[in-house]
User: Fold these one by one.
Assistant:
Number 1:
Amino acid sequence: MRIISIVMFLSVAVQLLYGGVNYKQFFTDKTLRIDYYHTGTKGQEQFSFDQACLEGQWPGSRVHLEDTLNMGEYIARVYDVATGSLIFSRGYSTMFNEWQTTDEAHQGVYRTFSESVRLPFPLKPIQFTIARRDKRMVFHELFSALIDPNDRAQIRKEKQDLPFRVSSLVKSGDPSEKVDIVIIGDGYARSDIQTFREKARELNDAMFDTQPFKSRKNDFNVWVVEAISEESGIDIPDLDEWKNNILGSRYSSFGSARYVLTEENKKLRDVAALAPYDFICILINGKRYGGGGIYNLYATTYTGEEVRGQEWQMKYVYVHEFGHSFGGLGDEYYSSSTSYNDFYPQGVEPWEPNITATPTKDGIKWKSFLTPGVEVPTSWEKTPYDSLEALRGKLDRLAPDYYEKREPLYQSEMAILKGSHYAGVVGAFEGAGYANRGLYRPSVDCRMFSLSLVDFDPVCSAAIKRVIDFYAK
């Protein structure tokens, strides 16, 4: 074991010295998808191998194979067995680690989720590992599996018979040199497909009207898969509405009425693989406000606003949730109800680049972005803002008169943010990550904070640009 560790250390050192992994030495131009099961409850988890699948062209970078972004709750690492070299890694988060913070998990209930990691198809046997962060943000290996790409019994190679139309909204270049997004519809029956096409174009336009995506559009390809469901709509469990939708997306995930996720991981991956993709956006055919986004997993967005005049909220949700799934950004708001318990444990510095528990000029993670002369922590108009949020929080979001009652409160909140003495300042503003106290965000306002079409703040923008550079250069 010690000899193997030394070999791995030396191989990594050589890779760093000479510029990283030589793609052609270790990989083909295809994609390997590794599916596994993730089981456990609060404080406990285990993994079990499910299957390995051959997919189409590897769409990711062939230069940046080792993850340098340092985001996500987990990291998958791939080692070449013959040399012990680290040849690939990716950070990501999961439904499982979110579920571990819910009441159900705290009560000792066990659940199992299907998960996947995609990597370039290896030429030779690999050791595939999964590690998770501890409370000090240090990764510890939890799972390992030996995978031989030449073992015909181990690799699933049959083609998926999914007759769904694939088209492009943005085509800037070869997938290996661009960020590839695939947009998939869920809950769209055959008669709804034209509506889906219109929504995909509308929301994609909203993305690239928002900075920093607007100035980096040439670094993206955007693909559309017209997945057809047997019925229109998706499941709404709290209303006892159930639909036969192809991806299995549903409202009320983890007990939150507007949180939209799907647990049908393998079906989603099979459909997404019809296009080259790095990131998945799911448009759900539902009128209730809702969505969701998990880093390096997928983002979901509703597309059928019930109230006239509020359609702009879909654009907000689409870009906000993509901020989670693409940029690894945390929620900066703190007053909305969630189903999480201690999502950010006290005394632990979050890995998300836009949230901190260390509000000091020397210790803050966005030190280089601080406005010169700004005090840290940074005072802001929090008291009047919180009084309005408290009133808004008492409203029933599902009530028919919700928007009518919300509007004056909302406008007053927006006036505070836009007129703030600290608008445009980068500091450390208390209130973030579902916590009124103890967590801080970089700016008074940002797409990750308020329900508005404001751009991302400088810290969030920088994080997004880092991800774009990682995949497109």
Number 2:
Amino acid sequence: MADSDDWRVTISVSGQAPAGQAQLSSSLRQVEEDVRGRVGRSVAVGAGDAQIFLYAGTETAARDAERIALDVLDQHGIAAESALHRWHPIEEQWENPDVPVPQTEAERQAEHQRLEDTETAESLATGKAQWHVRVELGSHHHAVMLARTLENEGRAVVRRWKFLIVGVSNEDQARELAGQIRQEAPPDATVIAEQAGVGWPFMPS
């Protein structure tokens, strides 16, 4: 996450424009343009169907942009609600501003370890992986062979033709396993460590 995007304001339209949904969409596009012109290039502005997003590098800039956007919306007769969040570099998600962000390397390491412990505990409690390594191989044969190797190591592997999914309990384990698989898999294999969107099984280690 770039420094210029550390703070985000989400403005959600809480009602329709007087002329209805079509007019609301048109008004929001105009609001987006007006806000972009008033906040300057230091704040990034984006919009969805019923939301406007403002990205800034500091809390002060974010709150100033928030005030401007709400003022523009009011001028267009559109009611809206806003929320301010800060990017948490360890959690890798948007958090409320009162959630502390680690400032030193020791604090960052402690926060990272806390997150890893939380993921591991949730994996053990549910039996579902919080992270997994996804592998795409060049052939079905290579997928079968690699799956057998990983299963012989005691890992739970889900195989789908040329794809493998190997569940693990946390991010550190996923990145370590991805490195190991890159050494064992053919050179053309694609290996990605990522958070599990589906509750894949895993073998506790």
